[in-house]
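Need tokens for this chain, all 177 residues.
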Amino acid sequence: MRPIVLLLLAAAAALHAQEADQRKRMVFSTAGPDGQPPATASPTPAAAPEPAGKHPEPAAAIGAFFLALKAGQVDAAYEGLARNTIIAERKENVNDLKGSTKKALDHYGPVSGYEVVDTLQVGDSLMRQTCISLNQDLPLRWRFYFYRSGGTWKIVDMRVDDGLVELFEEAGRRQKP
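Here are the structure tokens for all 177 residues:
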């Protein structure tokens, strides 16, 4: 869990450095330095299946997240997105992510909306949705990772950065035969 805290602190430091050098890139993630979610201390004992309404579908979860960001409610956005997920168990990391997101919004301007720019599904149980937030000065790239278990989608990771160039490079690679 410690590498995640260091990663989030590094992301916050990158944001401050970016003010001096606009070409630096910031990345906030709930994943560890190897890109994998950190292991939990101990697995949760097998539980009864969760009620269907407990985890909203990805589109609804993302829509509610950006609606809260648009209203300037960063804390509520993350609390709603992470509710009843493994991410919520990492309270310190979520708090760091909230703080970094607030700084990013101060830097790039408030969110006026969002667009889903890519959806990638791997098998039947994994999905990544890539969105851009429509900020006043510059959009941010948001990646939400979902896992379907017991018939419901749960968010398991998310990342945000200002890697807009990569969006175009990825789209170009997909268009080539």
